[in-house]
Amino acid sequence: MTSPPRPAATTPAAVIAAPARDAWPSPAEARGLPTLCEVCRRWARQPVCADCVARHAAVVPRCGGCGMRLAAVAAARCGECLHDPMPFDHVHCAVDYGFPWDALVVAFKYGGRAELAGALAARLLAALPPEAAAWPELVVPVPLARDRLAARGYDQAWELARRVARAIDCPADATAIARADGRSPQAGLDRAARRRNLRGAFAVPDPARVAGRRVAIVDDVLTTGATAAEAAQALHDAGAAAVGVWTVARTP
Question: Mean per-residue pLDDT for 77-102?
């Protein structure tokens, strides 16, 4: 199948104006065929139909430092971020990690459903503010440990990152950050335990690739922020000018 042409959109406003179609459509989409919505199971033209997006993915005010919901103005900092800020400049996330997105993320991450990357990347793109001042110059995924990559067959963060990067016409680099092997899985750990488990887990093999550049780290879920914080710190130590974190979902 011939790959579709790259979109002309190069600004946040242009991306958000039409974020829904994946840069790599499914075979059904590419042929103009309907498919079943992953949420309501009705026939639709997209993996998640417009009705389900409107019902379950409304844009809400969120803390610009951690992605948690706020009662009022988006991009403000919550009390915890003002007291103990994490080492990234901003956070953008699309939805809470709850119904129906938690099931889709689990299927995408652990169930071999790599084709869901497009639908999830579209939600992340839709959550980016059109007035974003520090549009990235490089998009990178949170890297997956080699043993888990071998077991899973793909890196879910990279599947998201490369789609987001292509949609905004930005370079993406799957190897800008390296992850040490032999760490325990993060699932089930609290924030303090995650920080201990991840200490020194990330490195930037070639600092020249990130030095002086605005970098966006892409991942599927932001839970405590420990993983993103360690990756962001490694990028800052390598000379990145600014580091943002872009995730599909935020654990409430």
Answer: 93
